[in-house]
Amino acid sequence: VLARVQEQSLELTFSDGSGVDRAVVDDRTHRVLWRGTDASTSLPLSRSSSANVVVVSMTARGAEPVAAVTATNPDPSSRLTPLTAVTTPTETS
After folding, report:
1. Range of the domain at 9
2. Please, are residues 66 and 9 in contact by the beta-carbon 8 Å criterion?
3. Contact 10, 69 (CB under 8 A)
4. What pTM, to 2 d.p., does this model score?
5. What is the pLDDT at residue 92?
6. Contact, 43 vs 10, CB < 8 A?
7. Where does the pLDDT of residue 91 fall: very low under 50, low under 70, confident under 90, or very high at 90 and above?
8. Predicted confidence (pLDDT) at residue 23 exceeds the cutoff of 90
9. Overall number of domains in the chain
């Protein structure tokens, strides 16, 4: 999973491409924010906010976590840059 903050959105790109049924779940509220088979998605992320989401692959055995994503979108006047961190079962970037 690749993640980046662009303007007022969190863009997620899935390395396994399209055709895989997956969901993106808000780790704070446990609400499903997106579900589909597209190779990428864009979620709203307003200025001066952050997001913690879990990407889940939907399989015959049930839901399997694929990655956890943390992203920040600071206020432009702060002169801080957006931050993204992706943790998977095998690596962190």
Report:
1. 2-87
2. no
3. yes
4. 0.89
5. 60
6. yes
7. low
8. yes
9. 1
